[in-house]
Amino acid sequence: MVILDVLTDMAMTGRLGPVFIGADWSDVTAALGEPWDVGTTPPGEEEPHLFAYGDLELSVCPCRKVSLICVQTWREVIELPRPLAGGTGTFPGEIRQAEVVSALDAAGCPWQPYLPLTFGDQRTLMAIPSGAAFTFELLEDEEPVLNVMGLPGDRHDCTAPQAGTGSASAYGLSMVSK
Question: Which of 14, 68, 86, 97 minimizes the number of CB atoms within 10 Å of its CB?
């Protein structure tokens, strides 16, 4: 499998295996294990909310639902969990815009420019089926390079206790980085 197969499938379905917007965090960790890294928590909040499995980054709401998904693609090597990506789980980075457009077109995935995230030195394309955003860095005298691919959050109205009322253990995590 190549990284464009993974990203195109995400753009078409809005999911990467058990990872999708609204997925229960316990289902994700049951399938993938503990996250490889845990993001920092903003001041005043006890619960972490950004978790990473290599270059797959997930935001998790206090209600334990996945609320945002992105794949960082700006690195020389992109690493994803092997159960989701197959093979070694590593892929070459520096994906060009023409490669992304070609892969989306070949998969029959309609897309369009996404103007709210197109400004300055970046350009964004949106895959229509899932709303996935492919954001490219515009390089001088070079074809745009994919910086990140993300699935839009659901912006649900969370009814879980908010910051300061819980703990990291609510996520079922041992706070250890890989």
Answer: 86
CA angle 168, 170, 175 (to 5 degrees): 35
Mean pLDDT in residue range 22-48: 79
- Decide if 36 contacts 113 (C-beta within 8 A): no
Beta bridge partners of 15: 20
Q: In this structure, are residues 115 and 122 in contact, taking their beta carbons and an 8 Å threshold?
A: no
Quick one: which of 173, 155, 167 has its CA closest to 28?
Answer: 173
| 13/26 Cα distance (integer angstroms) | 21
- The C-alpha atoms of residue 1 and residue 148 are separated, in whole angstroms, by 19
Query: What does the alpha-carbon distance between residue 150 and residue 163 come to, in Å, rounded to a whole number?
Result: 25
- Work out the average pLDDT over 128-155: 91
